[in-house]
Amino acid sequence: MYTPQPIPRVMLIGLSDPMKSKEEMFLDFEEVESLVNTYGGKVHAALYQNMTRGDYSTFIGHGKVEEAVTAISENKIDIVVMNEAIKPSQLHALFLAFHKANPHILVWDRVTLILEIFSKHAKTAEAKLQIKFAKMRQMGPRIYGMGMELSNQGGGIGTRGVGETNTKLMLRHWKSETAKVRKELTELSKRKKDQIDHRKHDGLPTISLVGYTNAGKTTLFNRITGSHDLAEDALFATLESTVNRFYLKSLGHEVYLSDTIGFIKNLPPLLIDAFKSTLLEAVNADIILNVIDSSDSRVDEKIQTVQEILNELGIERKNIVYVFNKIEKNESVDIEKIKDQYREFSPHFISAKDGTGLDELLSFFSARLGK
Predict the structure, then answer these.
(1) Which of 125, 167, 300, 341 gets the highest tally of CB atoms within 10 A of its CB?
(2) Residues of the domain holding 60
(3) What is the CATH number of the domain that holds 329?
(4) pLDDT in tens, 128-147
(5) Maximum C-alpha span of the chain
(6) Is the pTM of this model over 0.85?
(7) How many domains does the chain have?
(8) 242 and 298 inside one domain
């Protein structure tokens, strides 16, 4: 008989930045709450700490730690999520403090939460390997830190050496495993690059979809290619790179279209590094479409986030085109203003959901690729 798993009860802890408005801070919390929902949890409590009152050892300070311990107990919290990327030693200190309220408590930062979501959504061997590599990179220093705890807590004569041995063994094992997985990922990247080169040899151009997570990339991919890939209203619904061909009538031949992992604010470099083989599709495309949710209240901030990642990947700006999606949800969109603001990126306005603006976008493909 199937027994449904209880939904994890989550508490969020974030920093209150005096340089940000309350609205901006609420929106930051809304995004991390969306991440929690995507993971499968539900937020039951939230705390803020003023940035100026933080603490090196616990990140949030003794007083806020005690407040959190009370909230964990009262709300029966299973997971505490810090809406920041914080030091492993700070996470460990928070775990020791929160353990009083719940012996089974999990304490994550934003990066850990994203990795846990990735683990749930990964289907292919490549995605699972990429996540494993990212987790090892993220957890490695913590393993080393735990070894230091062992050596420092020895206390008695003869025990310190055991701690030091454990530390060295764990660190050596971590380095060995990391090198092994990196080698496998390098081989995957080489095979992916060979596939891309083979397609280029066929003479067929490639268009790649990128964008902030949940901007509607997969819906657009399905609309253009006639595919039926998963297009959920959730963050990180797509982790793998999917490639399909479609016939571009006005060009007179087929074109490759690829869909890739969504981006997010403060995406750590270790995740970009881990998913390089997936992102190769975007790096090597003739046209890169930055698919943008035009109905999002933080649209400009998210455009900047994606553009910064594209810059990190070394993608030439001349190949990037901005596609403002979901215009059916945003009747007040100022098209002329956006065209002027982002004219460098040939902005287009579409609804992947109902097909509005798609003919104009396909005509643009033909004009750009037919040169």
Answers:
(1) 167
(2) 9-118
(3) 3.40.50.300
(4) 888 888 888 777 655 544 44
(5) 81
(6) no
(7) 3
(8) yes
